[in-house]
Amino acid sequence: MKLPIYQVDAFSAQRFSGNPAAVCPLPEWLDDSVLQSIAAENNLSETAFFVAEGEGYRLRWFTPAAEVDLCGHATLAAGAVVIRVLEPDRDSVTFMSRGGQLTVSSEGDLLVMDFPARPGATVDAPSALLTGLGVVPRQVLVADYYLAVFDTIGEVIALAPDFHRLEALDRIGVIVSAPGTDVDFVSRFFAPGVGVPEDPVTGSAHCTLTPYWSARLGKKKLRARQVSQRGGELFCEDRGERVTIAGHAVFYMQGEIFL
Description:
Layout: E1 2-10, E2 19-25, H1 32-42, E3 47-53, E4 56-62, E5 67-68, H2 73-86, E6 92-97, E7 100-107, E8 110-116, E9 121-122, H3 127-133, E10 139-142, E11 146-149, H4 153-158, H5 163-166, E12 174-179, E13 185-190, H6 206-217, E14 221-226, E15 232-239, E16 242-247, E17 249-258
Parallel strand pairs: 2-3, 4-6, 11-12, 13-14
Antiparallel strand pairs: 1-2, 1-17, 3-4, 4-5, 6-7, 7-8, 8-16, 9-10, 10-11, 12-13, 14-15, 15-16
């Protein structure tokens, strides 16, 4: 049995930067153990699988270690595969997922995702977060992920987390963020509990980052940069209960999986 596979660098206009995602269109669902094995073999932060459903697709995401409820960059990559390869006459595609209904639309060179907003609530920092980060942030919030806010880009870039301690948290991911200089804000993202010590660019984190920085900066449209080693750029808009997260996507590879 052969399956098509694409690898796409999401949230970057240049290959070898942004966040690489594997995308596997399927004629029908395979056993979960097979999907997880493919994701582990790919060894990327996410592999997206989708199957046609109605006028759109059912979409699922797997890290090398687990299935997740929401993933931004692999949704952007899946949208690129549908709109730019499989159905080039379309300018948008709707995915149904464990994270709800998600739409990816083509607007010029950008792909724009419509995602649920997931604003954080202020909390006292858990001890595992403080010891895992090794420093005390200015503020800590929690939604699907913890969000630790710092004062400067330098503090965010200098972080060298203890991933073993972060695995003890009751959330799978930790966002760290600070105000930007040439962008509105910067971030990094850590999810060692699901096999992703540091994610290069994390679309789903911006479901929480966008409402936070929108309220703090008093603006709806925001430009963001994830300051990982690969780096990536995102264009976000706060729309109340929803956020839009836009970015570029560049194809790196196309091939076949043999099962």
